[in-house]
Amino acid sequence: MSILLIASDKGGVGKSTTAVNLAVYLSQSGKRVILFKAGKDKALLNWQEKRQKQGLPVIPVQEAYGNIAEPITKAARLADVVIVDCPGFDNAEYRSALTVADVFITPIKPSSDFEAETLTDVTATVRKAQKMGNTKLRPFVLFTRVKHNRTATAAELAKELKSDDVWLRPLNTRIGELTVYEDCANIGAGVHDVDRASSLGKAKAQIELLANELGLVP
Fold it and tell me: In the record, which residues are listed under signal peptide (predicted)?
């Protein structure tokens, strides 16, 4: 089993989009996947409802609030991968999930200072969880919504993060700013659920590379 926590100190960074696309791909790869909702918003529940209306395969969504370490651990006994989607701010759900997670990713748009500046506090929170006992935790920064004409900015930030071991390491995989992600999410799908769309091949490759880099697939 593997527990993947997706969290940030800011909303709107692509957490839920990343979560559902990984869930769909892993499910299609034969993994038993549970999406774990740790925020009061209804994004994942709405996505699941739309998915059912489309007749797409069910991906279970569980939810819990406050100290969610035990509910996550219980869910992990029923699945190969549990993907935890936390709200976009520092909260009890996020901090308790860090105590049991195997992998942590914080998505940011590298060209946004508002998002990049969250990394100081996120890094401190993650390092505290590691020092408090979760030595198995592997934390990463995921660059999302990367524009094709702003790759130099992403490269500069990656270089800065790699320059000092105190920072969370940036993943090599980057998620582009592709409308297909939003279009699929709007109908309760992931990019691996559809056969035709603009930039679909690129989007599918990005999700597959991400799953592989995180060690979620062989």
Answer: none
Read off the pLDDT of residues 108-160 as tens digits, 9 standing for 90 and up.
999 999 999 999 999 999 999 999 999 999 999 999 999 887 788 999 999 99
Spatial contact of 39 and 120, defined as CB atoms under 8 Å apart:
no
Contact 189, 182 (CB under 8 A): no
R_g (Cα) of the chain, nearest Å: 16
Distance separating alpha carbons of residues 29 and 25, to the nearest angstrom = 6
Among candidate residues 149, 129, 148, 147, the one with its CA nearest the CA of residue 139:
129
Return the domain boundaries, the chain: 2-209
pLDDT, residue 11, reads: 86
pTM, 2 dp = 0.95
In DSSP terms, which residues pair with 63 in a beta bridge?
37
Which option is the CATH number for 2-209: 3.30.70.1050, 3.40.50.300, 3.40.50.800, 3.30.365.10? 3.40.50.300
For 87-90, the CB contacts below 8 A with 24+ separation are: 87/11, 87/38, 87/39, 87/40, 87/41, 88/8, 88/9, 88/10, 88/11, 88/12, 88/13, 88/15, 89/9, 89/10, 89/11, 90/9, 90/121, 90/125
Cβ proximity of 134 and 100 under 8 Å: yes
